[in-house]
Specification:
This protein is α/β, with parallel strands linked by helices. The protein contains 13 helices and 9 strands. The longest helix has 19 residues. Bound molecules: ligand C2E and magnesium ion (3 copies). The site of ligand C2E has 22 residues, from strand 2, helix 3 and strand 6.
């Protein structure tokens, strides 16, 4: 009888969001083992100079290929990793793997961009870990670029500035990812020692039709230029978008129009062909 009641209660009280929570829990449990089971891997998306058309960098993008869930997109599991603290070991794995693969494939002098999540950025041993990985892999610091979103800076501005300064003094490059989508004021741009703004895909997507997106994109490029920062447009999918960005003086672009994210072996042959050709 109690069992029946329990069952009824269970059925009655279970809302949709609970099944979402349950699947997050299931993912979290499996994610815990993903590193050791070799289920994580990286793809790399080339970044192109709009003046010359040459590949100037690559961004490492994390992939989880799970035997239970198939390919889980990072948009789904990074937030779980952040909530459970798994972002520490996963973020460290990404940095080490990206630097190792970069050196193994001899990709210098391309820039290697690696994403850091907000919580990862706030970990007290972040700077020491990065220094250690650079030493271990012999990756030149000036060729590593860390991508941070504005949310990384929200909590404690002074601490964020201090961490950014320590990274800069190691010679690492810094980019603000998804620029324009966060809540931060422009004020932090002059305080934070960053090198590049990545204009978010949401502004680029309709930039050839939308006067608003054109105005925002122009403004970001103008601010960046006047502050000595580089600009990269994310999610470029058409030649019209490319032409607009080139005319407005945006320096770099990344997106399906140029390249989709590639597996390491394809990066290697692409770079080899470009160098030979
Ligand atoms: P992001 O850093 O802004 O990366 C760009 C995302 O846009 C990637 O999605 C990429 O595959 C996708 N993309 C690139 N070009 C185009 C395009 O032309 N059109 C469209 N529609 N999409 C394009 P992905 O790989 O699913 O990654 C999503 C987000 O997950 C990333 O956004 C980043 O915030 C996060 N992420 C990925 N890898 C890592 C990682 O190693 N660590 C952390 N902390 N976050 C990561
Ligand atoms: Mg990124
Ligand atoms: Mg981005
Ligand atoms: Mg983005």
């Amino acid at each position: 009888q109690a069992k029946d009641q329990g069952k009824n209660n269970f059925q009655f009280y279970i809302p949709k969001s609970d099944s979402q929570a349950e699947s997050r829990l299931a993912l979290a449990t499996r994610l815990h083992h993903a590193i050791h089971q070799n289920e994580l891997c990286l793809q790399y998306q080339p970044q192109v100079c709009l003046q010359t058309g040459r590949i100037v960098g690559i961004e490492a993008l994390l992939r989880w290929i799970s035997p239970d869930f198939g390919t889980v997109p990072p948009g789904q599991f990074i937030s779980i990793a952040e909530d459970t603290g798994l972002i520490g070991p996963i973020g460290e794995w990404v940095l080490r793997e990206a630097c190792q693969e970069y050196m193994r494939l001899k990709l210098a002098p391309l820039q290697l961009a690696v994403n850091l999540s907000a919580r990862q950025f706030r970990q007290p041993d972040l700077v020491a870990k990065i220094r250690q990985i650079l030493e271990e892999t012999a990756m030149p610091a000036s060729l590593l670029e860390l991508e941070l979103t504005e949310t990384a800076f929200l909590d404690n501005v002074n601490e964020a500035i201090s961490t950014l300064n320590q990274l800069k003094s190691m010679g690492v490059m810094l980019a603000i990812d998804d620029f324009g989508t966060g809540y931060s004021s422009l004020n932090y741009l002059k305080k934070f020692p960053v090198d590049k703004l990545k204009i978010d895909r949401s502004f680029i997507q309709h930039v050839t039709e939308s006067p608003d997106d054109q105005a925002i994109t122009r403004a970001v490029i103008a601010i960046a230029r006047s502050m000595g920062l580089r600009t990269l447009a994310e999610g470029v999918e058409t030649s019209q978008q490319t032409e607009f960005l080139r005319q407005e003086g945006c320096e770099e672009a990344q997106g399906y129009f140029f390249f989709k994210p590639l597996w390491p072996k394809d990066v290697a042959s692409l770079i080899q062909n470009v160098c030979k050709g």
